[in-house]
User: What shape does this take?
Amino acid sequence: MTPVRPETAAQETSSTPATDRVVRIGCASGFWGDTNTAAEQLVEKGQLDYLVFDYLAEITMSIMAAQKMKDPKAGYASDFVKQVMGPLLPELKRQGIKVISNAGGVNPQACAEAIQALAREQNIELSIAVVNGDDVLPKKAEFAQQGIKEMFTDQPLPAMMVSMNAYLGAPAIAAALATGADVVITGRVVDSAVVVAPLMHEFGWSWQDYDRLAQASLAGHIIECGAQCTGGNFTDWKAVSEGYDNMGFPIIDVRADGSFTVSKPEDTGGLVSFATVAEQLVYEIGDPAAYRLPDVICDFTQVQIDSIEDNRQVTVSGARGRAPGPDYKVSGTWPDGFKCAVSFMMAGIEAPAKARAVAEAILRKTSRLFAEKDWPDYTDTTIEVLGIEQTYGPNARQKLADSREVVVKIGCAHPKKEALVLFSREIAQASTGMAPGMTGLVGGRPDVWPKIRLFSCLVPKTACELSVTVLGASSDETFPVELPDVAEQSTLQQNSTPVASEALSGTTETVPLIRLAWARSGDKGDVSNIGVIARKAEWLPAIRAALTAEAVADYMGHTLAGPAAEKRSLVHRYDLPGINALNFVLEQALGGGGVASLRIDPQGKAFGQQLLDFPIPVTADIAAQLAAASSTSA
Assistant: This one.
């Protein structure tokens, strides 16, 4: 069959002139495990054109791959099918809401077939399309011959891989929509693609219109994590907490020029403001002037977020784009032995010291038992005493060292599963054979799990054979999809200029960063980012003067790998002047990241909270403004 190009697949689906048309999209899931109530909320109250879901992360792919190895019909988000789509199919059909989701995981065909079966049970006529082509594990040997290596560590491909999936873009999804599909199921795609594709389809934009592509990608990035842009995970949590039990999920209204508004359904909790949306903008990005996606390289440095209804609605504009590169990012997962973790409470006088002594004794004893069996020692261990701010490293408040109640977490890794089974059996005896006050073994005897590591690399886009399968009543039809042509980058305008650093003089006192800024942190493998947004534009110089990359490396040094002398090279700072923000990227900061890490915070979710305590020298004028604000709110 002749390959379909997305340019020919895009079409206008409304008689309304493109200049007046608005496409309304709601996002009901930010990860596999998010609440299943969001979809019903958005369908009931959202008046949507499209409902999108994001389920996949690197670790999710490895979990689904393991499920498929046990059952060829598994490997997708089954709760999406049974608990979300099943109950909502009649209303989705009645309202004509189209659904796009990457819930297909490593088995999108099986996911689509399960939805098709539900539709037949309910006598609902439904057109379902599947996007194929992200699974490149069969080509691993070719990639090894080509010398493809890990993009961060330069390591060669591991001998054994559990999964290997390319982050596809929007063209194949747009081609699927052009078939008239009511539901589009994908495997691994970039999170924003489920939003970019319907906008390309509805507006008929050119795939070389990189500014609009960047705006569409920004729209997808803002809502891809669900309630994180509507007040969830927000620095000023007290402004939102009364609505936590009924959090509103995000809705975007996108216009033909690419600008969009962010809101949430009426009568729901949360809030939509400059700050909540700005925090999501800086979430899990690297260089904001070169946010690389398969369809466009985005420049978010000049993005503007403007409130048009207090705590209810903002408009977002100003993203710029340029031509994408020739490669897809691929995330692979590979097994690296096994891991085990246990947590228990220690109470009483000198609880922290007792907790550490017991944990160290358990590890010493089991190491000795390993040696007696001619087994190797642990490949990695961690002891974290929770309740004394150990995750803060040297920034912890020392008065907590005398706490009378702590939880100790022991994490360990070993190449042999049997060794960690032995470890798990040697914990309980500490309650009667070691220091007093041990209780509350969390979850009972701990389980042993495969230790899965992430392998990220770049492969040529030509390595992926994109296609769309349309499920039919008697047989399925599959057609190939070709990628759109790419414009020459040299013809495009440069998007940003560096911000000059200025020293701050006349400081009179220091205040914690949280008085001056909001912050949000996230992860990509073993890399964490911390975005910092000034509460007022005039406060940004004080923040920039104090929060240098070197200062952040020193303050967060306890999270960074390697010798102290090299840690400053692992932190990079970027500017987002459009929203008065800074973004810090911390490499080798998560102990391997994901399920490979033994830490209590393997994804750096609390890093932003730690940095908010950083002391910032301020001028007398800023100090006076802060004092006035405090007296007003008191």
